[in-house]
From TrEMBL:
It holds the Pfam family MMR_HSR1. Residues 1-93, 441-470 are annotated as: Disordered. The keyword Magnesium does not apply. Keywords: GTP-binding, Nucleotide-binding. GO terms for molecular function: GTP binding; GTPase activity. It comes from Triangularia verruculosa. InterPro entries: GTP-bd (IPR006073), GTP-bd_ortho_bundle_sf (IPR023179), P-loop_NTPase (IPR027417). This is Mitochondrial GTPase 1. GO terms for biological process: mitochondrial translation. One of its GO terms (cellular component) is mitochondrion. Residues 246-321 form the G domain. Residues 453-462 have a biased composition (Basic and acidic residues).
Amino acid sequence: MPRISPRAAVNAASKAAYEIPQPIPTPSTPISAMINQRAIPQEASEELAAFRSKAPKPKPEPPTPSPRQRHRQPPPSSASQSTSPPPIDFTSFIPREKFEISTSLPRSYFLGHHNAALTRMRQALSNVGLILEVRDFRVPISSWNPLLEQSLSSTSAGVPRSRIIVYTKRDLAPPGQMSPHGHPLPGTQPPSNVIRNLKNFHQPPKVNNVKSMIFLGMGVHSTSLQELLKSIKDVAREIDSLTGLRVMVVGMPNAGKSTLLNRLRSHSLHLGKAAKTGAQPGVTRKLGTPVRILAGEDSNDPDTYGLGEGVFIVDTPGVFMPYVSEPEAMLKLALVGCVKDGIVPSVTVADYLLYRLNQVRSTTYIERFGMRAPTNDVHQFLRAAAKRTGKLRRGGDESLEHAADWVIQQWRRGNLGRLLLDEVTLKKLDEAMQLAREPSLSMNQARKREKLARKERNDAKRAGVTGEVA
Ligand SMILES: Nc1nc2c(ncn2[C@@H]2O[C@H](COP(=O)(O)OP(=O)(O)OP(=O)(O)O)[C@@H](O)[C@H]2O)c(=O)[nH]1
Ligand SMILES: [Mg+2]
């Protein structure tokens, strides 16, 4: 029997299948018989079977469906049930209730250029009529910097300066905190509740200089950009200055300030990028020159009335707070990329991510890393990630760190499940407001306070233990 190549076998088989005249079905022809009548020449069929058995199986890399899609998918047929992996079972898995945080965790990322920027911002304030305060929607409370609030919120005469709070990265928060079966998870908040709480909390008279609150994300949220431009116009008209309005965009590092400036300019004036952006904190190092985002008054265009010479935005470097009093907030800020990578060890950040993913019973990492079950063990999690990406090297630690960096980047891009990291209740917001009103501590003062608190905690613990023994 002459040998033919596998490719020729495939061609012959498919050609034969299409060239064989199809019998005209009669009412008595069974459907299965009609389907099987596409005969393949035996010679080609044997070669094809041999080729198929030798060919490496394609790696299954199914796109990870969202919990809602998964919910809608039809149940697998009994044939596929025997080959597909068993469904991920979270019922027998107990996620960690608490994340143990080392006392040596860094609690600050307040750099020299942050302090210098703050001084320059204060000096430039006399021309500024509106502050655009940018916060990351995934950490709406933790990315609230009281230092900015205290330094910039009022004029030298003590008059509150108008503020608009913009929550960015809405697209990276979950559409709803749901279990894989589509039920809300106990203890989680749907983003709509978070938005409602934030809006209610910032209503005047509680916070009397917040003009509006906007929730922005990449892609589909351009109506919010329109809404933001309208709010800015309203402030400009209120001030009604011949020279127009100067806006300062401020916020924590990497919150999306420069991106916001570029988006406003592009949306309103169809002009290209004016500010440099990047996925790491510290991209903007100096106060920018004012960039126009709204055209000046034009007698032929009623939409520009009251805008004077137009509206201009000044970009600023991200400013971190001198000290993060809540250790978990530092982990959240490191996870979202507000703190430079490496300040908090990446394995610790990845461990915190794993803890949070397990709390909401996210199955994405299990599916993506080809794991059989959820885990609370960060090394197991990272080894599975490293195997998946081919980054596993002999010797352990180094490759685990690489894997941790990779896992964190994947989550930041929205590829490993989306999380809202702060609990946004009115109580929590009240506490954050109290904190914002306290005079901000210097790094040394804050350290001293923390040391004292730790000593008191340890003393109390020791006294408790001694008491029990006695
Ligand atoms: N997915 C998503 N990414 C965003 C959004 N806004 C900003 N980004 C990204 O976040 C990263 C940081 O954006 P920047 O605008 O450079 O942040 P910044 O606040 O100016 O940062 P610094 O200048 O370092 O303080 C960039 O990679 C942006 O593409 C958003 O709404 N959604
Ligand atoms: Mg910037």
